[in-house]
Amino acid sequence: GSEKEMLSDVKMYNLNVANSGIYYFKENLTEAGSLESVALYRMDLDGKNTQKIYTLYEYSNTLCVLKDWVFFLDSSNEEGRMEIVSSDGKQKITLFSLKYSDYYYNDELKKNQDEIAEKEIENVENAGISEN
Q1: What is the pTM of this model?
Q2: Residue 16, strand partner residues
């Protein structure tokens, strides 16, 4: 249409319009103004019938709605989880979870690996084996 209409004055992010609804994340704050939680919400296309679907462990910047499921990454500083939750919030499945420390190099480990690789190159060169 040609008219603008305010559907909500809630501060929300990662809006996704699907299945006759608007899905989004909202930060819930304490009375002192600090972050209490982040939750997934759904409201009708007219801005009415808002419902909280799921409270995340930490934070997300990913949201995708497919049919009756909402996919999102729920992450913290230590780990990330790919979750799916039914659009009514009654079912949740963790697709995978990973600890970030398992995927980033420990500086000491990397240093040791580099030293081993350099010794292997020296051994090959000393043996008279060429790369060709």
Answers
A1: 0.70
A2: 23
